[in-house]
Amino acid sequence: MNRISPLAAIFLTVFVDLVGFGVIVPLLPFYAEHFQASPQTVTLLMAIYSFMQFFSAPLWGRLSDRRGRKPVLLASLFGIALSYLWLAFAGSLWALFAARGLAGIMAGNIAAAQAYIADVTPAEKRAQGMGLIGAAFGLGFILGPAIGGLLAGADPAHPKFLGPGLMAAGLSCAALLFAAATLKESLDPERRAKITMRPRPSRLAVLAAGFNDRELRLSIALLFLVTFVFAGMESTFALWSERAFGWGAAQNGYVFAYTGILAALVQGGLIRHLARRFGENLLVLQGAVALALGLLAIPFARSLLPLLVAMALLAYGAGVSNPSLASLISLKSPAEERGSTLGVSQSAASLARILGPALAGLAFALFGRSGPFLAGAAIMLGVLLLALRLPGTPRPVASE
Questions:
Q1: How would DSSP label each residue in 266-286?
Q2: Angle at Cα 349 formed by Cα 20 and Cα 141, nearest 5°?
């Protein structure tokens, strides 16, 4: 156990936890529809997690600056395990919303994990380190949705809810125990003492300081938009596939698993070569193009093969965009407020996960099943134009 490197330990901790998260994802739309929820209510269920995370992520990030990354990770994993137990035994729609809300409150592990990686990696390897978080997401969505789909069953009218919830809770408990046994604190006591003695800035002060820096401001805005679009796709894909192909939780789980495999390959290994060759700024541009093309292709998929091509584009786009933006944000963050700044960026991403599913559900209701994907593709073209404004990004035309 003591021979596990810090990066390997944080990767495995987040991976096991994200497998549990992935178990639930393909089940939630059908769980909500079991209680006669409308498509708009389904997307709100997806958003409540991020709504609560919007408020809690900066608090967890600030706490990790002063008390250490490991205690925050352990506390959040414990709370998430409890939320999955509640979800497993939810007997009504309000209980389902409450369980997901508790999970969102306790979701401080990603900002703390990113701060941990920033603590232990040099600047030139930051994108590679942040890619580990993305790889944990990708691998979690390889095993998690497949496990969740198998446990829930292939019948969209009669899915099974208890098994996936208990499995997710057990995996979070396993991640908690693993982190407690193997993870070493990345902030030494002397550094924590110095940070604790400093005046404690409010979340608004941290946010204001970040928005005074042009590159940090733009990076957070791009992270918001990329997350907004991807969350909208994620929350409406099962509704689209049910109407387009008659799929249930199992089939959606397999597609998400396929997407996770590709995303893990990009973020777990390919990102280090891509970042060294192109740099974070150009990777954000590549990601915007790939996401736009993937979203545009989904409504025109009439069989499995074109759909898999579209999902591959989405996997590559998210796989290069998210770690690159996280790297840019961490590099512009003051070392003594790194957790707070990353917490604010996660809060922006959480806000995107609130608004993205809600507006995607509205687009689904107003414009039909293709609405969310076509709107998302248009937004990604805007992201492409904004990404050209990142300092140091080569432009196809002369600047003003």
A1: IIIIIHHHHHHHH-HHHHHHH
A2: 25
Domains of the chain: 6-181+203-387 (1.20.1250.20)
> Taking Cα atoms as reference points, which of 325, 302, 304, 318 lies closest to residue 262?
318
Q: What is the pTM of this model?
A: 0.69
| Residues 6 or more apart whose Cβ sits within 8 Å of residue 381 | 288, 292
Instruction: Give the residue carrying structure tokens 């998400």.
Output: 256
**What one-character DSSP code corresponds to residue 184?**
P
d(CA 54, CA 179): 24
In degrees and rounded to multiples of 5, residue 105 shows phi and psi of -60, -40
* Residue 266 DSSP code: I
In eight-state DSSP terms, residue 267 is: I
Q: What are phi and psi of 15, to 5 degrees?
A: -60, -50
User: Which amino acid is it at 373?
Assistant: F
Helix 69-88 crosses helix 39-67 at what angle (to 10 degrees)? 150
pLDDT 10s digits, 335-376: 666 777 777 787 888 788 788 887 888 888 888 888 999 999
The string of DSSP letters for 19-49 reads HHHHHHTTTHHHHHHHTT--HHHHHHHHHHH
Cα-only R_g, the chain? 20
pLDDT digits (tens, 9 = 90+) for 303-342: 999 999 999 999 999 889 988 998 888 887 766 667 777 7
Q: Work out whether the CA dihedral 350, 321, 125, 205 comes out positive or negative.
A: negative
Task: Give, for 107, the enclosing helix (H) or strand (E).
Answer: none
